[in-house]
Amino acid sequence: MRTSFRNFAAAAALTAAAAAQAGNVGISAGSYYSPTLASALTAQGNTVSAVDWYNDSVLSQYQVYIQDGSSYANADALDRFVFNGGTLIQLPWSFTHVSFTENTAVFGPRWSGTLREASPAIDVLAAGDWLLNGVTLPAAGTQTIGREVGNEFVEGVTPVLAWEDGTALLGYRRYGAGLVVGFDVHLTTSDASPLSAAWSNQVVFNAVSAVPEPATWALLVAGAGVLLLRRRQPE
């Protein structure tokens, strides 16, 4: 019995460690790529690679893929990546230049273009959401940002933040075993004010470090329990 319990505890500990450990992150690198975000993620302990082309095999190397719309995009490969457990983070231009699949879209089309401006006020739509853990939002006008204007959340998305003009800022959706996060602030493009700020970096850190939902944990624990019971059965 003690051996079985130790096996169960070890399995649970390994599962928890695997969920909490730093990950392999790919960031799409287009014509205007800036390593600002990559440097911040590397400092946090992640392994980060700039990617100029990918397919299913390339994406399988990463736990997280950050898509910028000025770069190469393969919507079908990203769909499979998310469904199989990956986390996709969509930054500006991706949701205006890439036709994501129905299952991986977070934002709809914009009604205006890209702006470089003093940061507008931010409306919190889901106070206490896990993506906002440790995030202190900036006051209006305190930073210079680049963003898309006029895009809205699509059906099935959990909205978290919006710009004061109603433009969707931050939201996410689950698909298969994975996660898609949309974040409407330029973080990788050198022609639209890449933002190296504590609040935006923390949002991305939270997304990169996402752990399974409680239901997923329950399944993992149940699986470990089945293994324990099987070990107790006589040969």
UniProtKB/TrEMBL annotation:
Keywords: Signal. This is PEP-CTERM sorting domain-containing protein. Residues 210-232 form the Ice-binding protein C-terminal domain. Pfam families: PEP-CTERM (PF07589). The lineage of its organism: Bacteria, Pseudomonadati, Pseudomonadota, Betaproteobacteria, Burkholderiales. Residues 1-22 form the signal peptide. Transmembrane segments: none annotated. The keyword Signal applies.
